[in-house]
Here is the input.
Amino acid sequence: MSLALEISSSETPLHSEDVKEQLLGLLRIIIVDREPRVAGLLTSAAGVLPADRELRIASLQVIGIWFNLLNIIEENAAMRSRRGIETLAGPDQVKGTFSNILAGAAAQGIDPKAVSFALQQFDVSPTITAHPTETNRVTVMEIHRRIYRKLVELEIERWTPRERDRLIRELRAEIDLLWMTGELRLERPSLDQEIAWGQHFFREILFEAVPQIYENLASAIHRHYPQDDLPIRPFVRFSSWIGGDRDGNPNVTADVTRRTLAVNRELAMAHHKARLQALTKTLSISSNVVDVPAEFLERHAGLLTRAGIADTVKSRNPGEVFRQYLAAMTVLLSADGYKRARDFGDDIAALERALLQMRAISLASMVVRPFRREIETFGFRAVSLDIRQNSDVINRTIHDVWRLNAASPEEVPEPASPAWGAKLRSELSAQTRDAPVMDGLCDEAAEAMKLFRLLAETLKGPDQRAIGAFILSMTRSSDDLLAVYVLCKYAGMVDGGDGSGDVSLPIVPLFETIDDLRRAPAILRDLLKVPLVRRSVRALGNVQEVMLGYSDSNKDGGFVCSTWELIKAQKQIVSAANKEKLTISFFHGRGGSVSRGGAPTGRAIAAQPAETVGGRMRITEQGEVVSSKYANRGTAIYQLELLTSSVLAHTLKSPSEEELKANPEFDEAFEALSGMSEAAYRKLLQTPDFIDYFQSASPVNELAMLNIGSRPAKRFGLGGLEDLRAIPWVFAWSQNRHLITGWYGLGSALASFMEVRGAGGIDLLRRMFEHSREFRLVIDEVEKTLYQADMTIAREYAGLVANETLRARILAMITGEYATSCDAVCRITGRDDLAGRFPAFQRRFDDVRPYIDQVNRLQAELLGEFRAAAPGAANEKTVTQPLLMSMNCIAAGMGWTG
Here is the structure.
């Protein structure tokens, strides 16, 4: 066993056990003081929920707090483990770091030119979304953060016993505050609150964390490619959907988007001003003591003149040219004197160059360069705001504009008709003319045009990247995308009036369903035949971004089918793009759970098909995922480095790695498994009255009472499964421990495959497990999900289904498929202990399982009581509030919601 493995497998559990006992002891003290009747819950892993209905809230509060404390303990232990590995074995041994990746690249003989080329393509964008999956309030998250920091402080050995006792008392006070604060939101968060939630991570963590990522990369390059000057261009950028995602959320209007853009800008500007003030205090260098480069002095004089403070600042700070320079920058920034964020960054870069020329290398690299990196990353926007809208809304808007401007109704074609596509192409090929009449549009269309005019205005502003991209959900055809280009043209976004202009707004298709994924390559080929589109893509660096939906495709065809169709779609889209001589950048719409594409970051990226990454990747970071990754500085730095280094590793190594090379035998088997799995999954969903089972045996309807997002749970109106959003679909199946969204269908597919092909089939599947990263990731994640599912608990929820025949039929299908899946997975892995290959995962879940099981049983009981009461008549203290708290508890215990 390597030294790194010894540390990671032994030090972390031992430390976490010590911290666990310490926090458990503090929590016991608080509970004995606050509500001693529930103190028995924490006496052992088998603590039993009191039968007294009046103690339900207190009991669930104890368990919810304990689950969250366990998550903090795990995060702290992981950080200690990484530090221990680096201290004893060096940074090259810390998995997921740039040092680790470049050490491997150098050992494999990857030359500097290949590394340099990869760095030139490097572009990674975590995208924060406002999907309703974060159950913790911002106030509670802040307390969690303070508890984490107290644990870090307690690691320091220099404290005296008295000082350490004070820290422990402060820690106890935070846990006590957690008890008194309560975790439930009393009302649904407003959009402004969601925006503030997103900004919290930038203000408190990300502004400071990003420069460290660049420093870590520079250090790794210096370690492994010391003779080569490999330039590092900006490669991390952040995007957000909060305030821009209006798909199914009528609360997000053009006015809300305008307000969001404004507060994003204010966040960035406030940060930059604070950094300028800090630099001004630090850089007390006197030109009377050291020689300042003439080039900088010339720039300095021009800057002071522009700011109009030459005489004032020279008398206040005589000889302190750097302070004078920064004072002028502050004046200009405050007066909106910088037309572009790039100009502001250029002035800081000039300051950095001057310090380097003066041999003040540490000041340049440690004090000024981090600020330059921040400006390059965050600009005047803090975060790029994506706009998302449904294709149906766009098509209805186009139709209404044409209706208003038509001589007669017969002139207006219907969406999806040949005449519709022809008119779209005609509008785009025509030279710019007067904008269509817009007075008299219906409310929906008027609102859409107001948005597009705002986008046109913003793209001409001081930071063009304030707008990220326009993402078209439910993209079903090239016509859907062309409709967006037409609206851009109507809003004045096409440069040039002679028919040769382009649209500077990136327009991104989102392929969500299985059928849409299958059509994606043809849609893109057809789209790129339109000259305006081709010119626009070329003007944006010849890169076309494509977003892939994991959740809806999973809901549509099941986990295995969704995974395979996503793999195939990426390969086929890249192949189509290569023929068009353009680059594809994939945007992965992943969530926290396996059902929504969630998987360990490094392994998920490593399993992407060869040549589908190319140094570029966007991923969604949703709700509880944002909190788990970016709530604390050390974890945020590691998670960002893990994400970016994994993209770099795939780019450098995927062309030569055997496990990612095309294997027709494996592909044929995966295709067969996908088809059989999809058939089994759809058979379940198409069972008569399945929707009744789902609604009765899960809290999907009650979820709406849990105030975890401003967005409605259903797209349109409740008419069936197709109307339900994927997130509550996954949430409900995880709450009732069926978890079918993460495994159903695989067992039947594997069993049928092995039965038909015999020993050869089993051998093939085992070879795929050993040599196909894509297939192994499927087996790994399904195996972990099966471990979390519990058919005994599932039966408790099934008891809520009034129709006994329906209950027996559906439950028999699910429990039978579960047993088949467990058996098939163990046959392939060659082990009979489910999830035994993942000791850390198993240990963590075993810690919480006894509590989750009890909360599940209580939730099933509460659902029965809530539904039996007249509407609005359920007791708030003994039924309604405990029901909502049970959802929080289970989500915290499972580690994700949807």
